[in-house]
Amino acid sequence: MLQSGEKVTAMIAPAIEGQFPGTLAQIKESLLKIGFAKVVEVAEGAAVTTEHEADELQRRKAAGEGYMTTSCCSAYMELVDKHLTFLKDRYSSAFSPMIYTAKMCKEADPDYKTVFIGPCLAKRVEAARRGGVDGVISFSELAAIFMAKGIDVREEESADLGDTSSFEYCREFALTSGVANCVLSRIEDKSSIRVQPINGVDKKTFRLMKSWEKRAPEVDLIEVMCCEGGCIDGPGTIVKPAVAMKLRGGKAASPVKAVKSPL
Description:
Blueprint: E1 8-12, H1 24-33, E2 38-41, H2 43-63, E3 68-69, H3 74-82, H4 97-108, E4 113-118, H5 123-130, E5 135-138, H6 139-149, H7 178-185, E6 195-199, H8 203-211, E7 221-225, H9 241-247
Parallel strand pairs: 1-2, 1-4, 3-7, 4-5, 6-7
Helix pairs in contact: 2-4, 2-7
């Protein structure tokens, strides 16, 4: 996969934890073993997204501008661009964690290429449009590479993850309510923020979002996850969400209080 002499940084999405029968540190070691020069958690970029969305949400609320939606889900952004165009001025102006992480990687190592490794096929469209990301592969594609290289993540040593204290809470971006909870954690008066989670987009939730064009929801923040359960159920994943949660240690974001849907 990697060219001889080429230096590439692997940017691993938060959903990678639980996809393989090994720890996050062992996954990192496995990636280094197949030829990546560095491994960076996209949760670090998610912390930047969190700060931007928290600040923007508070500004919008103070100005009485109505609800704001999150801007992390690439599939949701595509849905808005193609079918729900009235929401374009509603989603956050913050970039996704992948884009912020790629920016940090390029600033740190200008000569390195960047490859995003995640559960989402829509990230390929985002990477092509935004730039800064040289490649995107799914967890299923990474699993095939591990198999070809004879790597069993469980048998690998544990690489040093470094100091993750400033962004480890953003590993919960992979789960429904995780993004909203991270944003709320950066707001002092979070009790005043009304949140509406969209846990998976189907015909019913599409009709709900379409209705907002005529009747705005009485909320402040809407978290949209196109995949039910969050990114751990993305099309590029390799295990069922229940298995992923077990391998993640059973960790889950505490569900935010949802406003009852009018439909």
